[in-house]
Amino acid sequence: MNLILQSLDADRSAIDRIASLADATAEDISSGGRHAWRCADVAYSASLKALIEAACYGARIDCAWLPATPQPGAKLADFKLLAMDMDSTLITIECIDEIADMQGLKPQVAAITEAAMRGELEFNESLTRRVALLKGLEASALQRVYDERLQLSPGAQAMLAAVKAAGIKTLLVSGGFTFFTDRMKDALGLDYAHSNVLEIVDGKLTGKVVGGIVNAEEKKNTVARVCAELNIAASQAIVMGDGANDLAMMSIAGLSVAFRAKPVVREKASVALNFVGLDGILPILA
User: Fold this and answer.
1) 257: pLDDT strictly greater than 70
2) Is 85 part of the annotated catalytic residue set?
3) Banded model confidence at residue 286, pLDDT cuts 50, 70, 90
4) pTM, whole model, 2 decimals?
5) How would CATH label the architecture of 72-286?
6) Active-site residue, selected from the candidate residues 62, 87, 97, 101
7) Phi, psi for 185 (deg, rounded to 5)
8) HSE-up of 187 (CA within 13 Å, CB side)?
């Protein structure tokens, strides 16, 4: 296997220490401001993988294992769709937590969000409980969150530019809200977006969601639906997420990417990016 190492700030000595564990030499493959190294033809084993991943995590280095002989799905050009979660993936915040902050309820809502993302609380229940706490809030708070707090995750722009240049379609599928996903779709020139609709009456949130909830199953179904519309296999999709409600859609993808994710998601993803930006997928798929 080839071992790809990436870091925002590790020095060469740290990279060489990781490479020595694999009995390999790290070749610098940095480009476009991304710091990356390749250890070629490593004698892979499950025990070595565990050792390398533990050492990398402690040194704030990301690692990915790839077949030494290129396989289908090994290059960016092999894919036709990039599906992304929004909150804490494409963007740095959980929008519902920031909306709740306008009500002085961020700690209560954030605790429910965290439990749901760890997979400890069923998503429909968690969303219903969180949205109910927003009842009576002026709808203008949503615009304030968008204007004042919403930021793209590091590397998002570079990743999207490369994906679009490769002719790959983009889908934003979120357990969040259309107020934000629709604006992100327009601002970033994404092809598809799907999320929940907050009910607003007389300029205030009612504490309810209109229609069905975009939960884990609906996220998976949305990816499958878009793949069918594009006449591609799900194996031609890259799916990125951070929480337990992303696992179902990640499970049908050709490449699943856990971005600064909960442990349960990191364990099951094809690739985990814990420290570098979203554009960390580019050296892996070069």
Assistant:
1) yes
2) yes
3) confident
4) 0.94
5) 3-Layer(aba) Sandwich (3.40)
6) 87
7) -60, -45
8) 16
